Amino acid sequence: MAEAILNLVLNKLAEAAVTETLRLYGAGGQLDSLQHELQWIQAFLKDAEERQKVDHRTSAWVRDVREVAFRIEDVIDTFMADVDDHNNRRGVINALKQVLKNPKKLSIVRKLTSEMDAIEIRLREIEECTERYGIRELREESSSSATQPSRPLKGVMLPDEDDPDVIGLETDKENIVELLLDPNTPRRRVVSIVGQGGLGKTTLAKKVYNSDKIRRDFEIRVWLSISQQYKFIDVLRMMLEGIRPLDGDEKDLLRDHSSQRRSEVHFVRELNKLLKENRYLIIMDDVWTHDIWEQINEALPDVRNGSRILITTRFSEVATRADPTCDPYNLAYLGEKESLQLLLKKAFPFEDPKAYLDGLSDLPEKFARKCGNLPLALIVVGGRLSRELPTYNSWYKILQKLSWHNGDGKDCTDILATSYEDTPSYLKPCFMYFALFPEDYQIKVKRLIRMWVSEGFICEKNGTTMEETAEDYLEELVQRSMIQVVKRRYNGSIKYCRIHDLLHDLAIKKAEENNFLQIISNQGDKCCTSSNTVRRAALHCNREDIMQYTGPNLRSLFYFNDEAPNFSSFRNLKILYGNDDNDKYIKLPSKISKKMTQLRYFGNFLALGADVAPECWKSITHMRNLQTLHIIGYIESLNANYMWNVKTLRHAILPLGFPGPPSKADLPNLQTLKTVTVRESWLVEGWPKLPSITVLKLEDFPPKYKESFCHFLSEVPHLRSLEIRVDDDVLYERLDMSSFPCYNMQSLRVCGNWNNYECIGGVNQYKALDIHMFPIHLLKLTVWKCDFQEDPMPVIEQLKNLRELILVQGHHYQKQLSCSVRGFPRLEYLRLYNLESLWEWKVEKGGMPTLKDIYIRDCPDLVVIPQLQHMTCLDKLTLEGVHENLRDRLQGEESYKLQHIASVYYI
């Protein structure tokens, strides 16, 4: 890990802003010397990190390197903050004049020089230790043996670890299903799956949850992920949301933290009412204590209709306390054959392993035995091998490194740690970053990637953005089976991910060893912390006195609680990340310190109405290094021209009503801009310069801007996602997509009166829908207020690459939707929302051949839908607010049409 930290410091010293400022303040020579010394040490560091496991002297040398790297980071960050503060007080021009006249008189220069001199002395001492500890010889020995190149990532989507198609659990699944469906036990029953971490309890429970027998027998099925530090109200919320959407009053109850007990009583009452009317299955995954069962018990009525609760846990006591009359189902290890099969499946995700087995001799069997037949260990080791060339020598070297000597499957900590040690240095900080998130947390990948970039984990590469490189890093962690994919986007990129509990524990352990982070959380009345010199802190509880647990060196602050701590004292803070779980955003502070000039990631905050003072937005302009600004909500009457002076901005997610950049604004690095209001000046003075923009969302788009907007689009060739919201009161001439040079556009969302009319001479004239009105390469299309005079499907279905289609809120037309046998050859997701006049949806046999997921909501007149039994890929169907006749037929005489669908929901 010291190698990775040193890389980060070298990247910092190479940043243009740092380099130019140091040279301007007369420290250019020291910068060059510092870089040279660090690069020299870096040449020996990788081998020293491997040797430190068995050599305490080398371990001390690695620790010294890590500490001096942290010290350099502190010195540079403090210096840059001093410069910004100095320039703010005196003005940039006056500050530069003073430096040029007599730079030594400035205290910040004297302070910098003194610190860098001390660091150089310390680096020379570390250099001398390389010979004293024999690290130089180690380097020469290791460099003489050529290393095998790794296999590159394939140019296809990687398999997801959350895929329930695993090996060796079919018999277990049938046994659990039989217990759940036992007709001799009509009363409510609790069935428990017990086994150590990594055995596949969650995967087995998912296979049970999605089995055909279970889907047919239970009207309500709800999945709950229970972590060690759960909140009871969150468990109740998840359970209710699994049955029906929350209404507005219930959402307000959740936001009002002062009425938690009232919220709990309401949710328990609602759950009781809903569950009494149906046969239900509640799956509670990863239960650590019996407390949660005792709390949730009263929300689960026993009406003697065969309802069931399925618990997965590591502890037999939890199982017996939940239901003493039902023996726990103890999950066993895999057999030798299944272990070998699972290992090879993960080691060769894209190829047939048979072609390589002869050359590998008995190594696969040795790996399987080394992993003790434990699924998680097999998956992680297989993922590690998937990155190596499938030769005997390369696999043998990996086998020699595995330190799990007993091989009995009792504890896979060592083997997981070995896989971490074999991870490339550039991935180690990315992996340890997952320790910051609570257990079982579903992580939003876009935000994770932006934080990695802000931390400096990602290097610039020619031809690709840092965000694209970060996506590659995440995909590599997935291929190594260290991270799990929860959901992918329409274009195949990862939308949500998570980390297995045991790997989460490993990430925390490694992060603490390297002073990378600390977790501040309540355990009883105690606060669990590590060193106060830590660089990153995650608050999993409410703490006002955070300074007591961290210290002045804090660089990143994450809070997953209900309140924002006082962060104004952290001058060198780079990342401030607020709770975004279940949209529990925290209000934007009324005052922000202007000294937080080093901040790179600022979110996720809520801005409402006129509550936010203009001074708050002005303070944000002092964040000269800001890369991501994420604030939701709405604002009123704001003049924010000064906001667009931050040239480093890469992603700006802003509240409704926020005015867009002025016409003369030049934002060369901005990739994401949403949501901003179109400025009147854009029509006269021209659109702002956004050469790197990839995601754009515009509010209140006037129709008269069509021509100038087309010219703007010709200057943004990287645009991939566009959303336009048009004033509802304006009947406008539709935007003709055929005139857009949108070769890279993958997602289009048009919101407004899209109604097949254009206004010509004050008269509404009908205009037919045409395929040329859409970018031909679209993967996702969303149309709001789609009051088409004619059925739009015959036109839209010609978009051959379309993966996802969403039609929303049509009031006056669209009584029928018809799809041909040739239509939508690649469509996977279809959403029909609020189509009030729709009564029939038809698809010719063979049409929509790849459709996986259908969601129909609030279409009250819909009574005719396609012959779904012909859609063989269909995996999920959700019907909410459709005609009772349709629902009754599908649950009765036409239920055979749904037999092949894994998940069917009626809401």
Automatic annotation (TrEMBL):
Q: Which GO terms describe its molecular function?
A: ADP binding
**Can you give the residue ranges of the Disease resistance N-terminal domain?**
6-90
For the region Disordered, give the residue spans: 137-157
| Entry keyword annotation includes Iron-sulfur | no
Q: Which UniProt keywords apply?
A: Leucine-rich repeat, Nucleotide-binding, Plant defense, Repeat
Every copy of the Disease resistance protein winged helix domain together lies at: 436-507
Q: Domain (NB-ARC): give its ranges.
A: 170-350
**What's a single GO BP term from this record?**
plant-type hypersensitive response
Q: In this protein, which residues make up the domain named Disease resistance R13L4/SHOC-2-like LRR?
A: 554-886
Stored InterPro entries:
Apaf_helical (IPR042197), Disease_R_plants (IPR044974), LRR_dom_sf (IPR032675), LRR_R13L4/SHOC2-like (IPR055414), NB-ARC (IPR002182), P-loop_NTPase (IPR027417), RX-like_CC (IPR038005), Rx_N (IPR041118)
Pfam families, per this entry?
Answer: LRR_14, NB-ARC, Rx_N, WHD_DRP
Similarity comment text for this entry: Belongs to the disease resistance NB-LRR family.
Q: Which PANTHER family match?
A: DISEASE RESISTANCE PROTEIN RP, DISEASE RESISTANCE RPP8-LIKE PROTEIN 3-RELATED
Return the protein name.
Uncharacterized protein
